[in-house]
Amino acid sequence: EAGVAQSPRYKIIEKRQSVAFWCNPISGHATLYWYQQILGQGPKLLIQFQNNGVVDDSQLPKDRFSAERLKGVDSTLKIQPAKLEDSAVYLCASSFPRSSYEQYFGPGTRLTVT
Amino acid sequence: SQQGEEDPQALSIQEGENATMNCSYKTSINNLQWYRQNSGRGLVHLILIRSNEREKHSGRLRVTLDTSKKSSSLLITASRAADTASYFCASQGTYKYIFGTGTRLKVLA
After folding, report:
1. pLDDT digits (tens, 9 = 90+) for A25-53
2. Partner residue opposite B42 with nearest CB, options A58, A99, A108
3. I want to staple A93 with a disulfide (CB 3.0 to 4.6 A). Which of A10, A47, A105, B51 is the partner?
């Protein structure tokens, strides 16, 4: 079974530039999550999709972050414009749509903002 | 911060010893999960315990849950060098998962 795919794996940008991350979840997983993990901390949920609808985006900085999930499958997360404090690993995860199912994580995208 | 707390932040033990790490969370939950993260494999699910369960075992892992204290513990018995990683608890309410701050475990051969 193929895992959660993410790209790119690494990205270095200057502050005020834009960046986009892509995620392809495991086939059949209706729920998709984007997390931000700052070095030395646990993952923080940014946004959760159920199919292509948003379930929770309460911690997404909506003035600069946006996310969409096209046709309930792939998803993109965008930052525009980036700030230094956005430097982190961005993790995508997917799960079956029941509330008690485990999440499967992708390898993450390490973003460095200079 | 909405993140749960884990302690200790770091733990160093000898191979063959047991490792215990604790997690506290803030809101009522449906279940609590433990994940392991190392540089080679990313975040991997270890075990899930539901809110109506008090203890669960999986191989060398033992998880307890005390909902009255909003706390959980993970015990790894007979640790191996390959257990070296960061361990996170993730508490789940209605929808959202809230991860703890993590415990960095180092197992010395």
Report:
1. 999 899 999 999 999 899 999 999 998 89
2. A108
3. A105
DSSP states of B77-102? -S--GGG-EEEEEEEESSS-EEEB--
Phi-psi region at B19: left, alpha or beta (left = phi > 0; alpha = psi -120 to 50) = beta
Q: Are A67 and A47 in contact (CB under 8 A)?
A: yes
Greatest Cα pair distance in chain A: 40
Considering only CB atoms, B50 lies closest to which of A100, A105, A108, namely A100
Whether residue A42 and residue B3 make contact (CB cut-off 8 A), yes or no, is yes
Average pLDDT of the residues of chain B: 92
Give mean pLDDT, residues B71-80.
Answer: 98
